[in-house]
Amino acid sequence: MKVCIFGAGAIGGYLGVLLAEAGADVTLIARGPHLAAMRSDGLTLEIEGETRRARVAATDDPAEAGPQDYVVVTLKAPSLPQVADSLQPLLGAETAVVTAQNGIPWWYFHRHGGPHEGRRLERVDPGGRLWRLIPPERCIGCVVYPATELVEPGRVRHTYGNRFMLGEPDGSRSERVSALSKLMGAAGLKAPVRPRIRDDIWLKLWGNLSFNPVSALTGGTLEQIAGEPATRAVVRAMMVEGQAVAETLGVRFSLDVDRRIEGAAEVGAHKTSMLQDLERGRSLEIDALVGVVSELGRLVGVETPTIDCVLALVEQRARLAGCYLP
Questions:
Q1: pLDDT digits (tens, 9 = 90+) for 112-170
Q2: What is the β-pairing status of strands 147-152 and 155-160?
Q3: For a disulfide at 277, which of 68, 125, 282, 299, Cβ 3.0-4.6 Å?
Q4: Could you give the CA distance from residue 11 to residue 25 in angstroms, rounded to a whole number?
Q5: Is 204 considered catalytic here?
Q6: In angstroms, rounded to a whole number, what is the distance separating the alpha carbons of residues 99 and 6?
Q7: Which string of b and e fits 177-189 if b means at least 16 CB within 10 Å?
Q8: Is the pLDDT of residue 314 over 90?
Q9: What integer is the mean pLDDT of 305-313?
Q10: Catalytic residue among 2, 182, 190, 204
């Protein structure tokens, strides 16, 4: 089975090593010093007290890899429109694209059913470009839970977690998603096929929608934001508004808002990905995590005043830092 990891950083590298050990024909798409290190010495994974090294194909030119069975996209959402053209050599007639990214994906309303079937979302797919270049019929949803870190070029450290929730947009247990789940299981990962992948997308997004922008504005860790009554109240209001939007779209939440906040607080002195990106001068995932929820609220007639307020603040904060281009 041919699997290409497009954007083989921390999560992509972790996944690539384990899939290669399970017997998959893995190609990693990367660039810069990380690519050079992998070409020279392979990819090293630090996990559960041991160090593993895998020799896998690595390139910055997708044309070298050719058509794949699966392309797992582990890039952050803002990067995808910039590379959608370069993905094309990887796409054969039956290639599935696994969207292992945070936030609402561009294919969200593909086979969603109801009045919004087929709708494009401007915040995550301006002009419907991704819908055209990476047709939603190719897509398999994936919600990523492991925590990993690229500690140096060619070396990934796994911290915790091994769950990758998988799901077809129409909820079916297709042959392609079942085969992928089996391969990931053989690699030691928990990769259940979920009949309602949008529920899983929203459950993770619930925290990212709120804690991420508040952390970027305040510099606070998860426990600091949840532990301060004022910031906790802001986060809670954003989550309540997001839940109202999601439930209007048919999403079911498996726990209540206060338990979700406590779960984030228990992670401790952790900086969110948005705060880390801001500190490192990287592009922030504002549109896929926050802006699109505001867009969905307008679509379904649910007011999102707290989300809109925080969105305006974090957009300006990121623009002034050179970390956001709407």
A1: 998 999 999 999 999 999 999 999 999 999 999 998 999 999 999 998 899 999 999 99
A2: antiparallel
A3: 282
A4: 18
A5: yes
A6: 10
A7: beebbebbeebeb
A8: yes
A9: 98
A10: 204
pLDDT of 268 over the 90 cut: no
HEC string for the chain: CEEEEECCCHHHHHHHHHHHHCCCEEEEECCHHHHHHHHHHCEEEEECCEEEEECCEEECCHHHHCCEEEEEECCCHHHHHHHCCCCHHHEEEEEEEEEECCCCCCCCCCCCCCCCCCCCCCCCCHHHHHHHHCCHHHEEEEEECCEEEEEECCEEEEEECCEEEEECCCCCCCHHHHHHHHHHHHCCCECCECCCHHHHHHHHHHHHHHHHHHHHHHCCCHHHHHHCHHHHHHHHHHHHHHHHHHHHCCCCCCCCHHHHHHHHHHHCCCCCHHHHHHHCCCCCCHHHHHHHHHHHHHHHCCCCHHHHHHHHHHHHHHHHCCCCCC
Q: Give the Cα separation of 87 and 102 in Å (integer).
A: 19
pLDDT of residue 5: 97
Order across the sheet with 25-29: list the strands: 57-59, 25-29, 2-6, 68-73, 91-100, 139-144, 164-167
Hey, what are 270's tokens?
């952790």
